[in-house]
UniProtKB/TrEMBL annotation:
Keywords: Acyltransferase, Cell inner membrane, Cell membrane, Membrane, Transferase, Transmembrane, Transmembrane helix. The keyword Hydrolase does not apply. It is found in: Cell inner membrane. The chain crosses the membrane at residues 21-41. It comes from the Bacteria. It comes from Draconibacterium orientale. Pfam families: Lip_A_acyltrans (PF03279). This is KDO2-lipid IV(A) lauroyltransferase. InterPro entries: LipA_acyltrans. Its main location: membrane.
Amino acid sequence: MGKTKKENHIASGFFRQSGKWAVVMVLKTIALLPFGCLYFLSDVLYLVIKGLVKYRSDVITDNLIHAFPEKSASEILLLRNKFYRYFCDVTVESIKFYRLSEKELKKRVSFVGTNALNQLAKERNGAVLLAFHYNNWEWSAAVQQHLNCRLLMVYNKMRDNEPVDDFLLKAREKWGGKAVKMGRAAKVAFRNFEQQQPVVLGLIADQRALASSPYWAVFMNREAAFFPGPVKIARKTNQPVFFQQAKRLGRGKYEYSYTLLVEDPAQTDEREILLRYIEKMEEVIKSNPEYYLWSHKRWKHKRPEGTALIQ
């Protein structure tokens, strides 16, 4: 009986892993499609997730209602549908990134503000770059081609799907940057700093942090936890903090801009650094809210009793 269970478990694991590799093969095939076909696929996907699947509809609607309490039910519904359309485009674009050529990239993407980023990173032995889930954040990995030092891209590993995780990492690293697991980010950043090897540490810093985080602040009208790592690293190294904004110029066309958020983190209160980041995010989100990742369960945790809000 025990042997049969073990054999069934092995067989089940084999088929699950085979299924994951099959998904990767499908993704690689999609990545070969021209943009016209990709956006046709996106249009079909939009109809499916909006009308049939209703992908995370409750989460998206709840997030939008709290973020924009002044909007009517019909306005929230319209905004949710606009988000679905954007989400489908970004999904196929992220897959395409795996096969995107340098020639195609130059036609579709521009980078603004990298000169100032390069200059300060050179003077201060590196920089910290804070981005967030707005517009196509995946394509921003190509900024490495415009940087004078190595881009370290901090990411959360997909523990339950290694083949897909590997697919995404190859797409991100093909432009010369290096992906670093979140748990190793601080160690790697400090090591490069001590060895005087300037790097730009890029973080998608609006990830959902643990409820135990000491950093809680109001973000889009709701209390949310933030990871302490970005602020801690910036203050310890005194490397300038930059903010990345992704602006959509058209379907599959983006402008990424880089602006100085904090020049001297060591001389700036850690709460002030975080609040500046939140203020910039909210400013960008409110300008075109449909481009934020509302399907993310960003506000899932509740602030523990005794943990103060940063104000």
